[in-house]
Amino acid sequence: MSYIIVGLGNPGEEYKNTRHNTGRIVTEFLRNSSDVEFADWKSDVKTKSLISTGKLGSKKLTLLWPDNFMNNSGVGLNKLVTSKKTAEELIVIHDDLDLPIGSFRISFNRGPGGHNGVKSIIQNIKTEAFIRIRIGISPVTPSGKIKRPVGEADVEKLILGEFKKAELDLLKKESKKIIEAVSCIITEGRNKAMSLFN
After folding, report:
1. Active-site positions?
2. Coil, helix or strand at residue 189
3. What are phi and psi of 5, to 5 degrees?
4. What domains sit in the chain, N to C, each tagged with a CATH number?
5. Cβ–Cβ < 8 Å for 21, 10
6. Which residues fall within 8 angstroms of residue 144, CB to CB, at 6 or more apart?
């Protein structure tokens, strides 16, 4: 069994700490965690991405950062995900406007929900039957109500805006749970992980 873990984001230093790069930020936390030893990032021409390989027990893992902008995240992924069976061992980690910062949800076999990176992956691998870890990026009011932006301009401003330091700290803290969830998916299966972490 070999899992492919994709962290969605945009390439380039200017996007490094933006909310839309949450997938990349969290997969880097995963790569540096003590649970799994990963190799250095390498550029892979075939999949148009950066790849880092590792192992969790007997399970082979491939971490992948698409080296395209978000709207083309799925380009090249079909070179690795070649069947419905391999799609079920694909974990895509990405930002989600419908969830508040400091939260995440595991989903399987769902539509893109307005996320262009996920949409590109579905178009390229021809299935929705893969695992997604959706990480909240929307700010909340003092009473805990989500402040989701309305309108294209406000959405773009938020997702391409940088995290504040306190928000990045919260994401780093939350990533420990996300890493546990990823480990659970790989070792005990997605249904177990969804029952424990959703």
Report:
1. 20
2. coil
3. -115, 115
4. 2-197 (3.40.50.1470)
5. yes
6. 100
